[in-house]
Specification:
16% of the residues lie in helices and 44% in strands. The chain is α+β, with helices and mostly antiparallel strands.
């Protein structure tokens, strides 16, 4: 054992736990990821009042959006709160009619969705995602605020200020941005 390996400190980096010598400088800077096609961004040091104001402002922006395209369905934007201090916005409903790649005639309605979740001074932003309302709502309960030196007690993905609980799922693509 050398002097460097006598006093080690564990850090959570993405899905890995790594040991670095005590006193070494490590500043994780992964504040974004894409999980199952849903973009996730993390912001820290956000007050609950700021979050509520931000959500109201964003909702007003979404409600004010109007499109003159004939493809857009005259359907109001929707706002849900699956968890306390969360919001999922569904908007931009549009109809797509015609044959698909297999030649089968389809008449589908698509939408855009985005979600927000505030917990312990951490803001999670999800989306926007095409037809992503259900995926965003399912991802919200897996999100946790995390201090930089906090080591999670369950498997998941560590981000700067946040943690996404859950095992890596081969059917769910995952990408983390560092830098």
């Amino acid at each position: 054992m050398t002097a460097l390996t006598q006093n080690l400190r564990t850090h959570c980096v993405g899905r890995l736990l790594i040991d670095l010598p005590e006193g070494s400088t490590w500043k994780p800077d992964a504040s974004g990821a894409t999980i199952g096609g849903i973009k996730l961004a993390v912001e820290t040091d956000i007050s609950q009042e700021w979050f509520k104001d931000y959500i109201e402002q964003r909702w007003q922006e979404i409600e004010a959006k109007k499109s003159r395209s004939k493809r857009y369905v005259q359907r109001s934007a929707e706002r849900t709160s699956p968890l306390t201090n969360s919001a999922v916005f569904t908007y931009g409903f549009r109809r797509v009619e015609g044959p698909d790649v297999d030649g089968v005639y389809r008449n589908n309605i698509f939408h855009d969705a985005e979600g927000y979740y505030w917990v312990d001074g951490t803001l999670f932003k999800l989306g926007p995602a095409l037809n992503g309302q259900e995926k965003i709502a399912a991802l919200l309960p897996r999100l946790y605020a995390r201090k930089a030196d906090e080591i999670p007690f369950s498997p998941g993905l560590c981000l700067n200020g946040g943690f996404v609980r859950g095992y890596y799922d081969l059917g769910e693509s995952e990408e983390v941005s560092w830098g």
